[in-house]
Specification:
206 residues; alpha+beta; 2 domains; seven-stranded mixed β-sheet; 4 helices; globular; signal; transmembrane; VPLPA-CTERM; transmembrane helix
Amino acid sequence: MTIRSLAIAAALVALTATSGLAATVQLNVVGGQLFGARNVDVNGTFYDVEFVDGTCAIVFNGCDSVSDFEFSTLDLAEAAAISLGDTVFVDGPLGDFDSDPTLTVGIDTFAGSGRGTITVPYDFTSEFGIERIVARSFVNRETSDLLSFSLVPIGADLSDDDTRTFARFTPSQLTPVPLPAGGFLLLAGLAGLGALRARRNKDTAH
């Protein structure tokens, strides 16, 4: 087995690993509307996500402690927002959820804003005497998507906001499969077969 063959095998393993992770995401679509998704990969851990309108207190179990949020750091909330953009808000056979923000539950951009802001809260702050939720948001726009920081008044009811909805994450029951590690084992086996073949060819030549 040549080095070229091993390189091709490595590329196939990497492609399989990537495809395997992406394929686990299952969109929750009812009547053409996107309600959420299952098995969203956030830094190697799988979560289910629901898009929910309402007040923070209703959506996040009282909303009086950071522990009410699944993610309590900026890095994790940002990773979750990025994963939404990469794996959930995509155009596909179930709907054009990237091109048309209004297909997401809680988003109704009839006023012409052309965007939907999916809010992932992770902390609290006080500004001018008003308690606010600190969030990292994925902004799904008709043109180009982006990430943004959000400060939402803690008593705000997103049912009254046509362009924003909460993303409520919960741990998924799916156990991640370490596909890349399996790929390394496969490569080791291929390398061993290559060495054995080379040895047999050498013995045959003698």
